[in-house]
Amino acid sequence: MKKLSLFFIAICFMANANAQNEVNLNIKQAGNQIISKHIYGHFSEHLGRCIYDGFWVDENSPIPNKGRIRLDVVNALKKINIPNLRWPGGCFADEYHWRDGIGPRNQRPKMVNTNWGGVTEDNSFGTHEFLELCDMLNCEPYIAGNVGSGTVEEMAKWVEYLNFDGVSPMATIRAQNGREKPWKVTFWGVGNESWGCGGHMTPAYYSDLYKRYATYARDYSGAPLKRIASGANADDYNWTETSMKAIGSRMWGLTLHYYTIPTNNWKAKGSATNFDEEQYFNTMKNCLKMEELVTKHSAIMDKYDPNKKVALVVDEWGIWTDVEPGTNPGFLYQQNSLRDALIAGTTLNIFNNHSDRVKMANLAQTVNVLQALILTEKDKMLLTPTYHVFDLFKVHQDAKYLPITFNSPEYGFGNAKIPALNVSASQDSTGAVHISLVNLDPNHKISISTDLNGLKWKTVTGQILTSEKITDINTFTNPDKVHNAKFTGAKKAGNLLKIDMPSQSVVVLELK
Ligand code: AHR
């Protein structure tokens, strides 16, 4: 029987929702489905102040660093168990020539970053620096290769440089550059947004190109590549259909990119900090579109791949607003509010609930760009509300998925309505159950009850992220305004778990 997603069920029962005072969560026992930790991945592009300033500091910088990599940023990302990091783009990837970013830094050629502000890229942060960063973060690298303006040979040689353990032309150059042993990178993107900045191709043309590039990007000993094809823009279902038909099992994953735009207008996306309830409502409606996208792309993939071998990889997602006033429009620097935290919680719940097909995802982008986890200003660093959600949700990484059904109350604005509540749950290797809940309604709390269907538990503890106003942000003068706190609104009543979920909040519970 086809699995009904929780959002579909929520929508089906919306008509009755007003009649209820208490939402009943129906949580089922775990099967074999695992929520891959790679759903909690991140993305860092040579864009604005993400790499330069965000991770990479000047020589002799007073900011604490190891080999020019900022330690405050590394330590913060380690705390949320960052599982993978995608690099060097984005659009930048299809103009990046990796050989410009190896060898002595003072001899590396410069280039123009045509996609992002037309600034000069000095290539001081290249392959070795990125892989050193991944080592420090203890995460897996996910490299996007250049299909748009690079050759098959160039990609093949990059893979050899990274992964071949023996005597070869690329391994010799690697050793001369100070790295004897291969890194054994396995996540490998074959181009990016090939429908757009990656070459404006048709899906049929790209599928043929994919096969050429992917064939010569070889599996070296101990490093079988997980080749990831450039997939659809939002609801371009024809792209997924064509790729599944033409490429099928020759890929490990197929990507999907979807950004939440507050106004639905790419030319005036809306402010990150200054918005009213109408715009908030519209933003959350757009965020929930991810449920529909993942459901429909998965259904197409199911036709060609019923055993779900090919992963849906949502390797760019998040809210995209206008830049902060006074900043370079090409740098995509935006603030991050409680609204963004609710987007993060909702989207991660969607991915958890689709973890049979979604095996990897990457929030755009880690530092100082779009829906960032971290903002920096010279030697200062702050953690955004979105960071705190990743901190709360890390308990789901590699845990067993627990299916949930429930009737969500509605949150309405004007004539439109969306489900107010979204939820996902998992059980970790110690048996502890984690339930993550998001209440999107800024005006009403939600009372919840569940008997947990025979799962054994004695105690419940929890944490909450909320704030007085939906527009609240963390700033360099008030960096802890929006933060996680102990949650006291959940209790055991006989066999029942009772939860009082405040408005505009993210809650993660632990039952032991
Ligand atoms: O994340 C910013 C940009 O958005 C990426 O470079 C591109 O892939 C997408 O259009």
Automatic annotation (TrEMBL):
It is an enzyme of class 3 (hydrolase). Its EC number is 3.2.1.55. Residues 1-19 form the signal peptide. Residues 315-505 form the Alpha-L-arabinofuranosidase C-terminal domain. It comes from the Bacteria. The keyword Cell membrane does not apply. It catalyses: Hydrolysis of terminal non-reducing alpha-L-arabinofuranoside residues in alpha-L-arabinosides. Keywords: Carbohydrate metabolism, Glycosidase, Hydrolase, Signal. Transmembrane segments: none annotated. Belongs to the glycosyl hydrolase 51 family. Homohexamer; trimer of dimers. This is non-reducing end alpha-L-arabinofuranosidase.
